[in-house]
């Protein structure tokens, strides 16, 4: 059976929404690392974004089962928070802190750029849908 255009559109929007939510969560984790750069014995944390996105989209797809072909698919939110892992430091400081500000700032900047790109793509998809709905 061919995939209906509405299913492809919904799947794309769900994927982008999951990516956006995970990027926001990662921004919080990275900001926490930066904020605790001077805290003794603080262990820098992060998570594998690709793995978390794969898990979130798999959970969303599994949760969206239809009881009738005419029913719309349920859009799922991002599942539980991704598993945080301690970042391996390049060099541990004397006070036991593992935050490397250069690494954290670079990761935060990259995540911010990806968040903005995802937001723009999602916005573009929504504008395209609105144009189609309005028939312009």
Describe the structure in your own words.
The structure is a single chain. By secondary structure, the chain is mainly α. It has helices spanning 5-35, 49-63, 101-134; strands at residues 45-46, 85-86. The protein is elongated. The protein has a two-stranded antiparallel ribbon. It contains three helices and two strands; from the N terminus they run αβαβα. The model has no long low-confidence stretch (mean pLDDT 84). Helix 1 (5-35) packs antiparallel against helix 2 (49-63) and helix 1 runs antiparallel to helix 3. It has one domain.
Task: Output the number of helix runs.
Answer: 3
Largest sheet descriptor: 2 strands, antiparallel
Round the mean pLDDT to the nearest integer and report it.
Answer: 84
Q: What count of domains describes the coordinates?
A: 1
C-alpha Rg (nearest Å) = 19 Å
Strand content: under 5%
Structural class, please?
Answer: mainly alpha
Please count the beta strands (DSSP E, at least 2 residues each): 2
Helix content: 55-70%
Q: Give the terminus-to-terminus CA distance.
A: 30 Å
Biggest sheet strand order reads 1-2
Morphology call: elongated
Poorly predicted segments: none
User: What is the helix/strand order?
Assistant: HEHEH
